[in-house]
């Protein structure tokens, strides 16, 4: 036990700056050692706030350990460990059926560790100012993770800029809320604000929700994450949205409005994942979907629901990392992201496939995986709270998620028809990272008690493995599986046309959709054109008014300056005379 | 000896200046100037620590007691400003040697250091003196040497800029002289404390009101109050790099201080706010400065020019603090004197670094420098964050109090304007950051390396100051609060 309570997040944050200085074995040791050191610190800190700093007239509590904060910090450290291991080296196909390894992008790895450190910092923030500082550090370092991929993926640059804009906007909203809150209440404490009885609370919640991928800005998740490198996306998916879940859990547990926002996110994720062809975008949409479950549970606000949200976040970070690692290996070794270009890889990358399937089973909440023992807490909470529509929608969404995320990803990537790609098996360090996550996913699924013991509301008297639960879940899975394989022919491209009843939903709907999009296309173009024109005109006007040749920027002759002096002096003299 | 410190504060740089000139060797002149600036900084810090308990040091020159002789009066407020001015000088003078060698022809080096020392003594004297006419004399000393310093710039436009500043500065000086003359006419005294005492019964006097108007406009010119700022962008943009850094960090600050001294020390807060209603002049002008100058900064091609426009906006914040007419507002003004000196000093030193290597400071000189001059550009980012007002930097501290002052008043629109100003600052700082880090070096620009440690250390001293005083604001905020309370007559 350390005498001086060292902030655990700082270990990773400062360690990130050491990473570029070391090479070879030392680098490996540092990458793997830092998260473990952070983990030790997380658990060696006594509960409650241990450091108080004075800033202006406010007390800052940068190291304040709570049960739920520690839970999130733990999984962040684990995710950093797995992601660090996965990103140690990058694999590239060498063109002869094998791969070559090169050192992972040091900028990305450093930024990712700073990012993980800031995320852990948020979970230990006892006051709003500390929280905000780490929040912004997170936004900057995660942008850097994305941006560092610009050399390999030219789209990453634009994506990182859009990502930064969204998060800076979110940061400004959050800062406005925090300043308001601190000023109105005179305290910087980060407390439950779920009554939403002040504008400050709404602003703070909006700032949090933007990071969670809530409407109307949900699109940033799927816009930004897939452009990151394989390892970069593992990091990105783990921290930003889940820190948002954490702060919502602490600050807004029981705020009704979150139920509706969460449900929207759940269905948003499903619908877009359904239409998507890019495997990594499917996974990105599924993040929104899964975070939607957590946000809904937070909105319900009962002890069971909050435990469910926390546990689900914990499990989700790990199995989503697992799926992304699996998808990332496929991307790295084939260079393909589109479902239509992939398929049949099971034979060439069996281990990657098995790990990907374990991740998919977990996301589908298959019994004996971490998804089963955590997600059921949330659905049960909805049922116990008497929120029948919410319960029904969550169950439907579960089935939908199974269908379009749990099955679609492994099926189209690893099975389906043979795509003619013959990549080698993923390199060993990536397999180890995946193995680590798979081990945790199954371990938690089989022995949920240690995780339950960490949950914020104790005691957890919840039994995941009852006959009732198992039967319900198997029914759901069987139904989803049946639906998936029945609908499969519709998802494939078929050259023949058969006029049958399916015409209604295959052709008519498609036709209607196309008609609709064609009709609206004109309107949209017009709107875009007008907005563009208006923006251009405004930029022109601004340039005219403030640019180098404008009134304000021109170099004026001395006479004009003197005139101003005279105007000001005469003006004030006249005013004083008249007074 | 220690009782002579107030005199030494001015006498050391004032006598070092002719010494430099007489010796005539550039390197020795530089060494003398550096040592003098360090001595000044040490004296200023000692004085501040001595008066920080609220006491006032009175120093009568030649043992002629006031109001007949010239008296130097040191309280918290001007000791604070003395620390700002001499501290910045102590950081910039060691820095100046390599930079001056690059930018100024060798035959002028001795003159440069002589002029810089004169300027320093003028600024310090303006701050320390308790005599209204003495203040004018020292103002002219500092102004005349400033014109010389600006005209030494490599850019040929620096001559016109210096000439324009000369015309405007002289008008400003004349106005101040007229104002002081009117006060002398009314009371027969030039001692500030005595003036304050004797002016009290004269509040309705037209002469007094005219004096007030002349002084406000005169100081407004010297501190570049919108719309009397037109001389400033060219002067800062074309002056030698070191001079820009020194002037941006000190000259306008001292002018703000002198205005505060006249407004509150002589006329009194009640007369200024309740009878002359100065806030109705200052607040709109300050807001216009914040908005228009910031917007203009966004479109500048030269980064130094951009920083000059940003300085105008920052002066707007300081005037806004005065215009808000409450404790927090005045406190924000005083804090921003200190904080802005750190911010702009650091940023202009980064520009000096870039000029030293790349030979210019237009945006295309800066493009792609992120990798080639990592430490300098990192300093720019840190200083820029401070300028924007990001927490943990000094910029945040002054903005924080300013926002509080506006909320105290219940003027929400002004709060929004302050935040808008920060947002625009983000835009213009980002332009430079984007060019430096996210763009390739243009082919017509030379590939450069990082500047030597001798130049980096002063730059980073100021940057670390930005962060240090941003995290430990108790000392500066404490001094500023006490000084603001004294000015408002609350304590």
Largest sheet of chain B: 2 strands, antiparallel
What does the overall shape of chain A look like?
globular
Helix content of chain A: over 70%
Q: Major sheet of chain A: size, sense and barrel closure?
A: 2 strands, antiparallel
Separate helix tally of chain A = 20
What's the order of the H and E elements of chain B?
A: HHEEHHHHHHHHHHHHHHHHHHH
End-to-end separation of chain A = 73 Å
Beta-strand segment tally of chain A: 4
- The fraction of residues assigned to DSSP E strands of chain B is under 5%
How far apart are the first and last residues' alpha carbons of chain B, in Å?
31 Å
- What is the CA-atom radius of gyration of chain A, in angstroms? 26 Å
What percent strand of chain A? Answer: under 5%
- Helices and strands of chain B: which structural class? mainly alpha
Q: Kindly report the average pLDDT value of chain A.
A: 83
Order of helices and strands of chain A: HHEEHEEHHHHHHHHHHHHHHHHH
Give the C-alpha Rg of chain B. 21 Å
What is the multimeric organization of the chains shown?
heterodimer
What's the layout of helices and strands?
The complex is a heterodimer of chains A (579) and B (491).
Chain A: H1 8-18, H2 24-44, E1 48-55, E2 58-65, H3 67-87, E3 89-93, E4 99-103, H4 106-123, H5 128-147, H6 155-185, H7 199-212, H8 219-224, H9 230-251, H10 257-275, H11 279-300, H12 303-334, H13 350-363, H14 370-384, H15 388-414, H16 428-446, H17 449-454, H18 467-491, H19 502-546, H20 558-578
Helix pairs in contact in A: 1-2, 1-4, 2-3, 3-4, 3-9, 3-12, 3-16, 4-5, 4-9, 5-6, 5-9, 6-7, 7-9, 9-11, 9-12, 10-11, 10-15, 11-12, 11-14, 11-15, 12-13, 12-14, 12-16, 13-15, 13-16, 14-15, 14-16, 15-18
Chain B: H1 5-23, H2 26-51, E1 57-60, E2 71-74, H3 76-103, H4 109-128, H5 132-151, H6 157-187, H7 192-199, H8 206-222, H9 232-238, H10 241-267, H11 269-275, H12 278-298, H13 303-323, H14 327-358, H15 363-366, H16 369-372, H17 374-388, H18 394-409, H19 412-438, H20 453-471, H21 474-487
Antiparallel strand pairs in B: 1-2
Helix pairs in contact in B: 1-2, 1-4, 2-3, 2-4, 3-4, 3-10, 3-14, 3-20, 4-5, 4-10, 5-6, 5-10, 6-8, 6-9, 7-10, 8-10, 9-10, 9-13, 10-11, 10-13, 10-14, 12-13, 12-19, 13-14, 13-19, 14-17, 14-18, 14-20, 14-21, 17-19, 17-20, 18-19, 18-20
């Amino acid at each position: 036990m350390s005498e001086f309570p060292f902030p655990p997040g700082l270990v990773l944050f400062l360690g990130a700056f050491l990473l570029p200085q070391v090479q070879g074995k030392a680098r490996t040791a540092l990458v793997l050692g830092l998260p473990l050191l952070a983990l030790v610190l997380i658990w060696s800190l006594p509960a409650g706030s241990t450091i108080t700093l004075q800033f202006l007239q406010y007390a800052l509590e940068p190291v304040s350990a709570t049960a739920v904060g520690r839970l999130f910090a733990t999984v962040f450290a684990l995710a950093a460990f797995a992601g660090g291991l996965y990103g140690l080296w990058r694999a590239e196909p060498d063109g002869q059926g094998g791969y070559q390894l090169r050192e992972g992008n040091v900028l990305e790895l450093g930024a990712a560790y700073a990012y993980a450190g800031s995320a852990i910092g948020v979970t230990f923030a006892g006051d709003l100012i500390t929280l905000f500082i780490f929040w912004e550090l997170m936004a900057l370092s995660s942008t850097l993770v994305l941006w560092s991929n610009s050399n390999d993926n030219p789209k990453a640059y634009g994506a990182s800029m859009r990502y930064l804009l969204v998060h800076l906007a979110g940061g400004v909203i959050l800062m406005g809320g925090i300043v308001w809150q601190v000023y109105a209440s005179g305290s910087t404490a980060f407390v439950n604000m779920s009554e939403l009885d002040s504008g400050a609370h709404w602003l703070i919640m909006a700032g949090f929700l933007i990071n969670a991928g809530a409407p109307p800005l949900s699109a940033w998740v799927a816009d930004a994450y897939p452009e990151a490198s394989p390892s970069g996306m593992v990091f990105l998916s783990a921290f930003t949205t889940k820190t948002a879940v954490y702060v919502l859990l602490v600050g807004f547990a029981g705020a009704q409005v979150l139920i509706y926002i969460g449900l929207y996110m759940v269905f948003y994720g499903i619908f877009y994942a359904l239409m998507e062809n890019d495997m990594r975008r499917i996974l990105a949409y599924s993040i929104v979907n899964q975070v939607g479950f957590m946000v809904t549970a937070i909105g319900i606000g009962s002890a069971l629901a909050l435990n469910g949200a926390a546990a689900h976040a914990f499990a989700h970070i790990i199995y989503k990392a697992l799926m992304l690692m699996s998808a990332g290996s496929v991307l790295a070794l084939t260079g393909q992201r589109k479902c239509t270009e992939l398929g049949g890889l099971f034979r060439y990358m069996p281990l990657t496939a098995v790990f990907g399937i374990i991740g998919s089973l977990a996301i589908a909440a298959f019994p004996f995986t971490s998804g089963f023992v955590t997600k059921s807490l949330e659905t049960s909470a909805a049922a116990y709270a008497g929120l029948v529509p919410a319960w029904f929608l969550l169950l439907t969404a579960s089935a939908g998620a199974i269908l379009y995320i749990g099955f679609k990803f492994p099926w189209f990537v690893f099975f389906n028809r043979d795509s003619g790609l013959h990549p080698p098996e993923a390199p060993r360090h990536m397999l180890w990272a995946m193995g680590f996550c798979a081990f945790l996913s199954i371990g938690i699924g089989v022995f949920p008690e240690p995780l339950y013991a960490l949950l914020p509301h104790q005691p957890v008297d919840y039994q995941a493995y009852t006959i009732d639960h198992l039967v319900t879940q198997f029914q759901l899975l069987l139904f989803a599986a049946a639906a998936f394989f029945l609908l499969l022919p519709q998802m494939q491209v078929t050259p023949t046309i058969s006029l049958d009843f399916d015409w209604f939903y295959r052709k008519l709907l498609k036709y209607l959709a196309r008609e609709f999009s064609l009709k609206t296309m004109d309107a949209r173009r017009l709107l875009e054109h007008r907005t563009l024109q208006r923006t251009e005109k405004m930029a022109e006007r601004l340039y005219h008014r403030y640019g180098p040749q404008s009134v304000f920027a021109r170099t004026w002759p001395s006479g004009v300056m003197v005139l101003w002096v005279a105007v000001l002096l005469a003006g004030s003299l006249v005013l004083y005379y008249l007074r | 000896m220690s009782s002579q410190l107030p005199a030494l504060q001015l006498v050391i740089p004032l006598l070092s200046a002719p010494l430099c000139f007489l010796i005539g060797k550039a390197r020795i002149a530089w060494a003398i100037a550096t040592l003098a600036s360090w001595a000044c900084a040490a004296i200023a810090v000692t004085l501040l620590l001595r008066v920080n308990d609220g006491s006032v040091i009175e120093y009568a020159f030649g043992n002629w007691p006031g109001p007949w002789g010239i008296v130097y009066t040191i309280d918290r407020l001007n000791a604070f400003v003395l620390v700002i001015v001499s501290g910045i000088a102590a950081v910039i003078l060691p820095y100046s040697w390599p930079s001056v060698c690059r930018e100024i022809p060798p035959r002028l080096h001795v003159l440069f250091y002589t002029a810089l020392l004169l300027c320093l003594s003028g600024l310090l004297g303006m701050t320390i003196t308790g005599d209204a006419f003495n203040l004018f004399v020292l103002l002219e000393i500092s102004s005349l040497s400033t014109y010389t310093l600006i005209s030494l710039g490599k850019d040929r436009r620096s001559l016109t800029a210096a000439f324009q500043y000369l015309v405007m500065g002289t008008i400003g000086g004349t106005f101040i002289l007229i104002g002081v003359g009117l006060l002398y006419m009314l009371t027969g005294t030039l001692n500030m404390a005595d003036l304050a005492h004797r002016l009290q019964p004269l509040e309705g006097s037209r002469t007094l009101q005219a004096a007030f108007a002349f002084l406000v406009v005169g100081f407004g010119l010297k501190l570049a109050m919108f719309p009397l700022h037109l001389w400033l962008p060219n002067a800062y943009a074309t002056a030698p790099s070191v001079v820009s850094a020194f002037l941006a960090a000190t000259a306008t600050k001292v002018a703000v201080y002198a205005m505060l001294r006249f407004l509150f020390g002589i006329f009194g807060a009640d007369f200024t706010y309740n009878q002359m209603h100065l806030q109705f002049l200052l607040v709109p002008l300050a807001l216009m400065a914040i908005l228009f100058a910031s917007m203009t900064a966004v479109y500048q091609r030269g980064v130094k020019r951009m920083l000059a426009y940003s300085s105008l906006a920052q002066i707007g914040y300081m005037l806004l603090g005065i215009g808000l007419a409450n404790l927090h507002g005045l406190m924000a003004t005083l804090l921003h004197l200190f904080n802005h000196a750190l911010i702009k000093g650091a940023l202009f030193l980064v520009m000096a670094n870039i000029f030293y290597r790349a030979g210019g400071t237009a945006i295309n000189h800066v493009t792609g420098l992120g990798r080639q001059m990592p430490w300098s550009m990192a300093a720019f980012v840190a200083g820029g964050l401070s300028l924007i007002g990001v927490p943990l930097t000094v910029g945040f501290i002054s903005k924080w109090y300013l926002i509080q002052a506006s909320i105290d008043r219940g003027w929400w629109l002004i709060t929004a304007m302050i935040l808008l100003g920060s947002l625009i600052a983000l835009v213009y700082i980002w332009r430079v950051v984007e060019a430096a880090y996210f763009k390739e070096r243009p082919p017509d620009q030379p590939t450069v390396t990082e500047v030597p440690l001798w130049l980096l250390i002063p730059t980073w001293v100021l940057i670390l100051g930005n962060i240090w005083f941003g995290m430990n604001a108790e000392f500066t905020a404490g001094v500023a609060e006490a000084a603001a309370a004294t000015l408002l007559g609350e304590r």
